[in-house]
Amino acid sequence: MVIDKFDTELLKRLEKDGRIAFSTVALSLGVSNTMVHQRFSRLLQRGVLSGVKPVLNEKKMGFDWGSFTGLTLDKDYDSARVIEALREIEEVTECYFITGRYTLFIKIVARNHEHMREVLYNKIDSIPGIIKTDSIIELGCAFKRNVNIA
């Protein structure tokens, strides 16, 4: 999908304030409210926007511990089943296919070190097919952003 200048400007405004009114965007861009709504809908349909949802601050919600954990699987081709099991664990917030010594790399959030140990030992290690986990504890996020749409 080609993203034109209008789509880029719309995305920039939404990134600054995801709750901005379409009428405000339309006024600032000199177009109709209907055009903004149609373009927004098109961006959703084509998957450029994967949804409209709040960005939660995990630390403010009591999840003070985070880890990036590499998973080694017994059989890499069995990853779909492992991913479905990981999807059921609330504390696993992200899951990536990667190259290198791990098959999958996940982000885990927990309230404290005891909660993290419980998630790793009782939930993740019990998934059939996972033979090893290797975790790196997150000490804080310096920044997180979307890809540059300029």
Notes on the protein architecture:
The protein has about 150 residues and is an alpha+beta fold. It contains 5 helices and 4 strands, in the order αααβαββαβ. The chain has helices at about 5-15, 20-30, 35-45, 80-85, 115-125; strands at about 65-75, 90-95, 105-110, 130-140. The protein has a 4-stranded antiparallel beta sheet. Helix 2 crosses helix 3 (about 35-45). It is elongated, with a radius of gyration of 20 Å. The two termini are about 15 Å apart. The model has no long low-confidence stretch (mean pLDDT about 95).
Q: What share of residues are in beta strands?
A: 15-25%
Low-confidence stretches: none
Largest sheet: 4 strands, antiparallel
Q: Into which percent range does the helicity of residues fall?
A: 25-40%
Question: What descriptive keywords fit this protein?
Answer:
150 residues
Q: What's the structural blueprint in terms of helices and strands?
A:
Elements: H1 5-16, H2 22-29, H3 33-45, E1 65-73, H4 79-87, E2 92-97, E3 104-110, H5 113-124, E4 130-138
Antiparallel strand pairs: 1-3, 1-4, 2-3
Helix pairs in contact: 2-3
